[in-house]
Amino acid sequence: MFIKASLDKSKVVKIRKKYGIPKGNITYTDLDKPAKPLFSAKHKLVGKPDYIVKRKEGHIPVEVKSSSVEIPYKSHIMQLAAYCLLVEDVYNAKVPYGIIVYGDRQFKIPYSNILKTRLIITIDEMRNCLRTNGRLKEKA
To answer: How far apart are CA 112 and CA 86, in angstroms?
Structure first.
């Protein structure tokens, strides 16, 4: 499933410059106008990355944040990992990394098997917590 971006060339140039979005074909955007959420039946996960850029090495989700930081927040890395998982499943495509943009700085986050596993464990823990009415289980 491919969701075509409906942006004219001049707007794409401005967006790329403003957010430091890498070269490639923007195949999805949610920042300029609301886009249809991506849904993975396999992982029962839904989300809307700000951009997806198709490059030679694969599909790259891009998440734009309004804050400025020295290092990315762990929660933002997990959010980006969820977008990588969605793109991998929905587009049936390789996702080598994602990008988080903060102000004038961006971070390229490798989408590794370790990050994917941490994400799936975190999602499972969150679902378990919801099933137990929000109570965390005591660890021995």
So the answer is: 14
For 119-139, the pLDDT digits (tens) are 999 999 999 988 887 665 555
Angle at 26 between CA 22 and CA 29, to 5 degrees: 110
Distance of CA 1 to the CA centre of its chain: 17
Q: Using CA atoms, how far apart are residues 36 and 31, in angstroms rounded to an integer?
A: 12
pTM above threshold 0.90:
no
Residue 114 CB contacts under 8 Å (≥ 6 apart), including other chains:
none
For residue 93, give every residue at least 6 positions away whose Cβ sits within 8 Å of its Cβ, in sequence order, or none: 58, 59, 87
Q: What is d(CA 116, CA 65) in angstroms, rounded to the nearest whole number?
A: 22
Structural contact between residues 26 and 53, judged by C-beta atoms closer than 8 angstroms: yes
Query: In the block, which residue shows the tokens 């499972």?
Result: 124
